[in-house]
Each structure stands twice: as structure tokens, then as C-alpha cells.
Amino acid sequence: MAYAAGVVGAAGYAGVELVRLLLAHPDFELRAITSNADAGQALASVYPAFAGVSDLVFTTHDDPALAGCDVVFLAVPHTAALAVVPQLLASGVTVVDLSADYRLDDPAVYERWYGVAHTSPELITERAFGLPELFADDLARLAERHAAGDAVLVACAGCFPTATSLAAAPAMRLGWVADEGPVVVDAISGVTGAGKTPSARTHFCSADENLEAYNVCRHRHTPEIEQILGASGRVVFTPHLAPLRRGLLSTVTLPLAPGARGLTAEDAVACYRDAYAGRSFVRVLDAGQTPKTASVVGSNACQIGLAVNAEAGALIAIGAIDNLCKGAAGQAVQCANIVFGLDERRGLPQVALPI
Amino acid sequence: MAYAAGVVGAAGYAGVELVRLLLAHPDFELRAITSNADAGQALASVYPAFAGVSDLVFTTHDDPALAGCDVVFLAVPHTAALAVVPQLLASGVTVVDLSADYRLDDPAVYERWYGVAHTSPELITERAFGLPELFADDLARLAERHAAGDAVLVACAGCFPTATSLAAAPAMRLGWVADEGPVVVDAISGVTGAGKTPSARTHFCSADENLEAYNVCRHRHTPEIEQILGASGRVVFTPHLAPLRRGLLSTVTLPLAPGARGLTAEDAVACYRDAYAGRSFVRVLDAGQTPKTASVVGSNACQIGLAVNAEAGALIAIGAIDNLCKGAAGQAVQCANIVFGLDERRGLPQVALPI
Amino acid sequence: MAYAAGVVGAAGYAGVELVRLLLAHPDFELRAITSNADAGQALASVYPAFAGVSDLVFTTHDDPALAGCDVVFLAVPHTAALAVVPQLLASGVTVVDLSADYRLDDPAVYERWYGVAHTSPELITERAFGLPELFADDLARLAERHAAGDAVLVACAGCFPTATSLAAAPAMRLGWVADEGPVVVDAISGVTGAGKTPSARTHFCSADENLEAYNVCRHRHTPEIEQILGASGRVVFTPHLAPLRRGLLSTVTLPLAPGARGLTAEDAVACYRDAYAGRSFVRVLDAGQTPKTASVVGSNACQIGLAVNAEAGALIAIGAIDNLCKGAAGQAVQCANIVFGLDERRGLPQVALPI
Amino acid sequence: MAYAAGVVGAAGYAGVELVRLLLAHPDFELRAITSNADAGQALASVYPAFAGVSDLVFTTHDDPALAGCDVVFLAVPHTAALAVVPQLLASGVTVVDLSADYRLDDPAVYERWYGVAHTSPELITERAFGLPELFADDLARLAERHAAGDAVLVACAGCFPTATSLAAAPAMRLGWVADEGPVVVDAISGVTGAGKTPSARTHFCSADENLEAYNVCRHRHTPEIEQILGASGRVVFTPHLAPLRRGLLSTVTLPLAPGARGLTAEDAVACYRDAYAGRSFVRVLDAGQTPKTASVVGSNACQIGLAVNAEAGALIAIGAIDNLCKGAAGQAVQCANIVFGLDERRGLPQVALPI
């Protein structure tokens, strides 16, 4: 018996990745895919990869089938989720929200960075933060409430915060990081991170054979990273765009606390492996190895590499993910698995194309 | 109860794609992966996509475990299979050969194009040609022999012949093509088609932002295409290299026979759909649509587009495949499925990454 | 003393390539660059490559400075040139038109393919066709008229016709090609060929790692190729899109006339070198070599490779150009050089980036 | 009257870029290009971009023509220059060395990072460091000695140090940077940075659609950056590889000194423009803008973008260059221009391909 699932915003890049994953998931049955822009069109005509495989047709966001779903995934732009989440929860539908609307603990921070007032701040305290390897208790609590019949809300982490935090959070939690000084996050994303809407910037001829930083000091994932790491006001986050489709690499440089200046890369690897014991999607590489995004693209895996610069007193922690899978749709399905009491790996790809 | 499987030449691109598919296959269990160059190394260290997923280690080609397998897949260069196939068959092991060694019906043609004498021509008459949608009877015959306890041999079609023939063979078989005049095959391949060995030509800085034809009038897939299409001496095959990893597009221009000059694209599509009825991997697009390699990469699908130039009297038939999957490893697993009496789709990916 | 030059449509890809070339040209001085969409913006803000190099600002197409120019280059969409060319000529301005509006000899063919009536067909008979290596006399005639004080019109060849015709025209003119049967043109273009306007098709995530044919049997360069080659109704032209920015490769397969069945590749190369003697931009490679687009990108060169399939009776002629340079802006400047009595090479790049 | 020039190691990527630039240079005449691996081959056969343009042929490194040159450019691997530089200088030939052998002031540091003893440390004190915008006096001193008849030595900066230092040095020199804490350099290079030798890592199928860090904490450009910036032991340098050919982007995050905490991006831009006044290759962008590598590739330009994170107390300085031009060959020619008393811009490309 499969659970009925819906995807709102299914024609965007994160949305269609949800469709890919849910069509192959043994425990969820995809009942509704919505897209106001593509309503009435067949999934296979918008994404020919589904030709001969699925007969699903996009409907509008007000499709009444959504209210009959056990779970709805929201892959809509920020602020759009604010309008939908309270209704769905009120209808008894569990919501896995991929937007930024319920991620930040403090509605004032949300207003500062997103420029709009939060209209349902009371839901923030009840939601779980969707980054299972770092907020397991949060999700376990939700799974209990769901088992008891509640409709619950998961606010999934963003793509940059996921790679960055999986790389940096254990060091922070283990007390290795100095109390002061910048935490430098230089991350590189493939172009799918810029979304599906055509623009001058995402034109092949602009993006190909080019490297650039963007939104320097004002990317909205900054407060989210600071919240997860507990490093308020210290994160210098510079995202970069590179000419590939999927893949996100985050290189985090953390100043070591005086007491941690003797740390070696081997120590760090051992402690990280302890911290992630039992979490099959997070793979900490041996000291001296560095992750490649090509090794995780298409899968829900995150690979982490660690190095220590003893002279400068810094830990370099690098995380690689597929921004659309572990950084969006895959993580959302992983969260849904946990909330519905399934193995978190259920229905999720473990291996990238090896080449 | 899974069948024991081995892959010889498992560290090459087709080989590792076999490993990817077989690790996920519910009815085959991968027992041995061999690579003389990488023997002793872990699969995950050569292909980090498998880190945390598989503990397999490469062995040498003389691994005795191979003789204990139910099926061995050979992903070795041409002529290397000549040395191995007879032994494996003699040991009672069914062989699915991805090399060119047993593809050509006539050993003299093999000698002319490959420059070596064929040492086991008697096996050619017994083998099936591994292109299931066009040689179904051949494989059905082998499945019967296998069910009766025989070790059998499949010689899988090459990548260019697969895309080209799936696009062009129905037109030939339906008598639409003139008896004379060149059959023009202009095909484009991603760089995985050139294999894993680093060279000046496959260096990123040579292949990126470049288009070129290669092996003009002397590519070894020419006689194979002519054999499948029954167009001896008429195929002008020009392969091209383009800057992508996986994907192969073959555009075939066929002169129409006088009796077929009234053919429309809509007719052609309808007849092709009949010809491929029940073959779920081949998807004939509506008239006016053209296939994209990105719509099939990672899957075992082949998409076909058809157009007619009435004035010039030509049918344009275009086939798109993933050269490593439907053009190599996926087709090999599909053949193995059939020989072992399984559904041909078993364990094979149906859908590409949609983006 | 430099000639005053203007570019209409200077913000598009061909337009900005004209700007690049004219800024470096010793005999033309760029006085006006127009773009209705970007009027008022600095060149350097739309194309940051010019930051610190040029202070030019885009004006609108009705910039009165155009009438004061010695030559105006039109890089506008087809039909837009119809409205502008007669006025400019009447003002005494020589026009080099990169659009398709004055290319076709027969206005009825123009109407059939472009869907609009031609409003100044009388200018077609007077214009020269801008493909200097094949229409030298045409341009020489114009240079004489220009020297005598006339404002004249050049209709530059399109990108696909340029590469295709430079590869195929000598064979046609030398009588090597059979009188019947399709002339097959399978060409591949980089994404700049699709223009600057962002669209789903030119989005990096659609174009990257993808190959596709498009506009099969209905690309508007078909009648232009047929006109140049004198092969009316015989050209089967299938353009393809590949993931690179600049570069165009055209592979032409020509059926050999009975009297030419003994032709060798070496013969063909020798005859082509004769045919192109003294034309420094066309470089015919040795038999056995094939051109690479990377070897010409950024320059005005065209490389040609030739092969013969004796058994099938076909000549394979392959041309490689930079679609924005020799296929558009470079060729336009080359034509202007000739019309103004300069060496055709003046101000034009001879060498691609070698890597 | 042109100066006679030679290039040792002319078949590598930096070497052939030198060839491209010197062939177009009005004041240098290229007399000898050497490559032990490709000796005897024509330049045009190794790099077909030169077909029809140059008849130069590679000779071996011991070509006696080198001793007759006015200047020789060395594009050889580190340690190989040690063997050649003293001889050439003794023959009266001025040397512009692109290798790392004479860059580091302290031979002990050289030995620590390169693993070999320095055999001519006395030459280090006499050489100029080849990064003209930061070491103008050094090069002016050499120009004087050269004008007086001396053969002199320039040790050109590496690619990462060039982009990094042009972005960060003014901030250091102006006293904006805190005395303690890591200086974080996260830089991204195209694949030409890895050199011409084919390897698993530079195979198109490994590098395409992939991001990775490499040589973390042990890249040999680290001590060079520390030397230029005067930040010994403080630089945490993490180079990354991305799928493009040419282009290098360095993002430097510098902790602000207490007295500089009020710095704005606008202030920083104004001061940088002062610092680089009159240096036409360095272009400091307006606050809020970020450099793109595509805007400089093919030219000798460096674009710099600046941002301030007031809360975290950090300056973000980003430099974009073409690693083969401003990061190697172009800078070498710029240095030679200065030493020979020419305008530093002579013969150097100012503008990238705009698209």
C-alpha cells in the first residue's frame, strides 16, 4: 500500500527531480504534479526523458487532488510556500517544503533577508529542519507525531547549506573552531542551481567556459548556514557559478581554536566518521582525498574531504553533493521516508553514474 | 536465487557501466570484476562513485571465479575476446561479448577490417547478434538452448550500429529504400565513445569546444552497419566527436525507392511504431519531433525521430542513445535478461535524469 | 584616414563580433553601434569583455549617425533589413547585410521560405553575394562601382551555407557530382548559432551534454545552399546543435558522377587547392586529415577536409568555421575590405587560440 | 628592426600561447621554438590552428639558434629551468622564465616545496619578479641594466599567484588586513592549468561535469603567494578544478584590521583604482560587480571585484584572468616589453572574445 504523494511546482528543476525519484519509489504513488505555467501539458512533452514512461499531466497549483494526498512536496519559490503550507496542514496533509519559507528559526531574520513579513511564524516552532544527518531528533519527533495521526511540516535545508553544514557542523559541534574570526565558505554550483527560467546568465553562451562569483555577501543562504552552524555574523559566504549542470562543492575554511591546533587530518576524519556513523548517504573520505561532484551526481550521497593547515591554524572541510538530489529533491524524499517511518534510504539512488 | 555474473574488462567505461547495472540488478549477483591494469585496487578507489557502496576489488582476467559464473560479460578490446570466449563456453559459462570479435557474419570481412585472422569462426554461426529489437528470433533461439543447459554466446552490437540500425532498419525492411545510391550515416558521439585511455584527443582541452569528424570512410562499424541493414557497399559512415560525455546521435539519410516517394513522416512514424510494438526501450517520437541524447542518457532507451524530404526523395531517420548503456552495457544486460528467460527490462533504467 | 562604420543590431552575437573586429581594424572607425533593446547602455556593461577598452554606448536603430557612415553593417533578424537597406543606400551609405533578406536570387523563393513578400526585389539584382572565395567577380564588380562613388549592397552568406559551400562548391563546379540523388548536408553548430535571446533551448542545462537535430527539412538555409551549389531540390540539410559556444562543422556527402568514380582523396585535395589558390582564409587539409572547429574559432579561417568512399561512390567534404566570424562578422568585414579596395585580410584574425 | 626571440618548451600550453603572441608581435621575431618531445614536427601539425599561417618547426632544447636570440622565454617544468638559465645568461641572452625556479626569494623555501637544492641561488637576487603591476620598480631596474647591455632574468609569477595577488596585494599594502588569522584563497582554474600531458584527471570524461579541490594545503603556489603578500604562514590556499579550458578565478577573503572595519566596497574600489592607475591590463570593477573569466579569456587583462562583509569583518577580493595569458605567456611578453623599453601593452590582446 503506497502513500499518495503530490508535487507542487513539479516543472522546475527540483520539482522534476522529485518526480523522477517518486516515480521510482516503492512506497509513494505520485498522484498530482502541478505547474501553473505548464498546466495541461504532459510531463513527457516538457521533459522528453519521460516519453514512453509516464502519462502524468501537469495541473494547476489548486488541483483538488492535493488535499487527498498523504504528503505534498513543495518546490516553489520562497514566499509562495507561505500561502500554501497552512492550508495543506489544515487539510491533514503532511508537507515537505523545499522553499526557504520555514527554514529560519527567527521570523525577523526571514524578513530582513527575504523582504516580506512571515505570515505563519507559529508553524516555524513546530516544523522540523530537513537535514537528517544533523537534525535527527527533530525529524524523529515529527515521525512520532505523524504516527499519531498529525499532519506535520518539514522545512528542507537549501543546497548550499546542506553541503556546507555537512562539511562544517561536526567541527563546530566538537569545539574545534575558534570563537572569533570569519568562517569562510566558498562554494561552487552547477547551473541547475540558478533554476529553469531562461535568462542572460543561464544562456549556454554566457555560462559555458566561464567562472564567476555572484551575490557576494548577500546570498540568502547565509543566515541559514549561520543558524545551522551556530556562527551568527561570522559566515563569509561567496557562491560561484561554473559550467556544469548538476553538482555543488562547498569549501569551508574554519579557524582552529587554540585547543585544537594540534588536530591532524587523520584525527578529523576519524571523528567525522564517528559523527556520521550509520548515515549511509554521508561518506567521509580518507585524509588526503578530496571529493568530486561527479562522484555523487544523480545520487543522494554527500562526500566529505578534510585537511588541516597547521601553520595557518585552519581546518578545510569540503562537501560535494548533487544540488538537485541531496541538495533538494533527494533530501526531501529522505525526510519524507523518516516521517513516514520508512528506512531513510528507501527509493533513493545510492550511486552516481561512475563516468 | 541470483545468477552469478562476472565482468572482464570492468575498469573501462563500458565495463564500469556493466558494474553499475549489475550491482542494481535483482537477478544477477556480481562475483568478479577483472582488469589487468587495475587488479588489486578497489572499485571505489578507481571510481569514487562507488565509495561506501561496494567493496568489490578488481582481479586479473585469469580470475578462476569467472569459470564459476553463470554468465560473463566481456568488455575488452577487439581481438582480446577471441582468446577468451572459446574457453569460457567450454567451461559452461554463457558469454555476452561487447567486443567486435563475433559480430560480423563473414570471417573474411572481419579480417579485412580488423587486420587479424578469426581463430574461432565456427562460433559465429552459433552466436546470436545482440540487438534485441531487430534480432528477436536469434535471441529467442539462444534462450531455448540456454534453458536446455547450453552455454551460449551473444555478440552485442556496437554503439554506432545500434543507434543507426534502430533508426534505419525498419525503413530498409519495409522496402522504402532505393536499391542504389549512398546510405549516408552521419553520427555524433560523446567522448566516452573514445574509451578510458588518456590521449591527446581525449584531453579535456582538445575535446572541449570542438567538433570534428574522424576515421572518415574507415571506421570499423561500417561493415557492421552494412550487415545489419543489408546494404553492402552502400553505407557512407562519418562519425563525429562532440564535447559531451555520454550520448550518441545517428542521423541516417536514405534515398527513397520510386514506390515510396509519396511517404509522409506521419506514415513513417505509424509504421515504425508497429515495427517496434511491445519493445519498451525504443520510443518513436511524433512527426515533427526530434530526439535529444539528454533524454536518454543513463537509461537503456533509444528515441527515434523521422522526417521526409519529398522533393529530394529522402527519409531522414535519427536515433539517440546513451552509447554506454543502450550502446554497450545496457544492451548487454538486456540480452542476458532474454537469454536467462527474464523480462528484458529487468534491472535496467527506464528514465534518464530529466535535467 | 579611416572609413566611418556603423553596426545596426550590435548587441546580438554577430553584432558584437562585428564590434570586436571593427574596434581592432586599422581602416574602419566604429562610429555608431545600435540596439533598440540595449540603447543607452554602455557596450562594456552589456559585454564586460570591453570594460576598460571602449566607451561606446548603444543607440537606437534610428541613430542619425548611421547616415554619416561610409559603411553600415546590418546584424538584424531577417525581414528587419528590408526596412533599412533602401534608406541607407539612398543616403549614400554602403551596406553589408548579414541578414537573409537579400541573399536569395528569386524573391518568390524568399517568400516561400520566409513567409513575407520582398519589398525591394530590384536591389537583389544589384547586390553582390557575400562569400568572397566563391563569388569573387561579383564583389570585384561592386568594388568598381564603389570606387566610382556608388553606395553598394553586399548580402553576406549565412553560417551553414558558408561552411557547406566552401566544402562542396568546387566539387560541383568541377563536375564531379552525379546529376541525381540527394546531396546530404549534416551540419553541427555551437549554441551561439541560436542567437542571444534566452530560451528553454539555449538554457545551459538544456544545451549542455546534449545532441539534437532541429528544423529537419525546414531550415531556411536550405534554399541558400541549393542556390550556391546549383542543386535545386536536391539538398537534404539537417542541422544539429552541440554543446559548445562557437564553431560550425558541415559534413557534405556528394554522390559521384560516373565519370568521377575513380577520384582519389589526393586528387580532390590537389584540385581544391587549385580552386582556392590565393585565398588565405581557406585551408585545404592533406588527405587523411579532418578539420576541427577548435582550430578556427576566433579567426576568419575555414578548414576543409576531403575523403572519398570509392565503393559507395561518394565524396565526403567537410568544412569547419567559426560561425560568428567566417560565418558572419568576419566574412562581412572581409567583404567590406574588398568593396573598399583593401586587402581582404585587413584587420581580420588569422589564427585561432591554439588551445 | 625586430628583436630575435625563442621559446623553449613551445609545445606545452603556455609555450604555444607564447608562440601565438610572439607571431603577432610587431617587435619580436620568433626564430626558434623547441620541444624535445615534438622536435622535427611542424607547429601546424601539432597545433592545427597554425595551418596555413606559420611554417615553424619544433627543434630540440639544445637548438644553437637560442644563443643567437635577444630573448628566450622558458616554458619548461620547474627544475628544468635551473639547468638552462645560467647558460643562456652567460651567452648574453635575456631570459624570461615562466617556471617556478627563480620565483622564491629564499632558496631554502624553494628546497622545502620543490624537493631539490637550488643550484644558482646567486641569480635570484639579481632577477626581477615578473608581475609588473606589483613589482614595477624591480622591472624598471632590469630595463636599465638591459639598456646598458646586460642580459637579465625575469622570473614570472605563477597563474594562481598572479590573480590572487592582483586582487589582494593593495589591501595588504594599504594596511587594511588584520595581523593575524588565515588569509583564505579559494581559486578555481580551467583544465589548461593542469598542462598538456594526457592523464586520467585531464581526460574529458573525468573533468567534464565535475568540480573538485586538489593539492589542498600542499600546492606549490602557496609560498609564492605568501611571499608576494608578505603573509608568511597565513595563506590557506585551496585550488579547484572546473570544466572549462582557460580561465582562473581567485576569491580571497581577508580579515579586516580593527582600524579598517569601517571600510566600504566603494572605498575599496576607489583605493584600488588609485593603486592601479595607469596599468591598463588591470580593471577594477564597480562595487557590486563581480568579474567573469569569460570577460578576459584570450586577453592579458585582469578584472578585479571587491566586496566587504562588515559584520564578519572581511574584505572579499576576486581576481579573474586567463591562466595562459595574463597567468603565463601574456605576462611574460608584458615583462619582455618592459625590459626591452617598449610600451608594456605592445603586441598583447586587450579584449577577450565578447561571447
TrEMBL record, chains A, B, C, D:
The keyword Ribonucleoprotein does not apply. The active site is at residue 159. Pfam families: Semialdhyde_dh, Semialdhyde_dhC_1. Keywords: Amino-acid biosynthesis, Arginine biosynthesis, Cytoplasm, NADP, Oxidoreductase. GO terms for molecular function: N-acetyl-gamma-glutamyl-phosphate reductase activity; NAD binding; NADP+ binding. InterPro entries: AGPR, AGPR_AS, AGPR_dimerisation_dom, AGPR_type-1, NAD(P)-bd_dom_sf, Semialdehyde_DH_NAD-bd. The keyword Membrane does not apply. Its EC number is 1.2.1.38. GO terms for biological process: L-arginine biosynthetic process. Residues 4-142 form the Semialdehyde dehydrogenase NAD-binding domain. GO terms for cellular component: cytoplasm. It is found in: Cytoplasm. PROSITE patterns: ARGC. It catalyses: N-acetyl-L-glutamate 5-semialdehyde + phosphate + NADP(+) = N-acetyl-L-glutamyl 5-phosphate + NADPH + H(+). Pathway: Amino-acid biosynthesis; L-arginine biosynthesis; N(2)-acetyl-L-ornithine from L-glutamate: step 3/4. Belongs to the NAGSA dehydrogenase family. Type 1 subfamily. NCBIfam families: argC. Catalyzes the NADPH-dependent reduction of N-acetyl-5-glutamyl phosphate to yield N-acetyl-L-glutamate 5-semialdehyde. This is N-acetyl-gamma-glutamyl-phosphate reductase. The gene is argC.
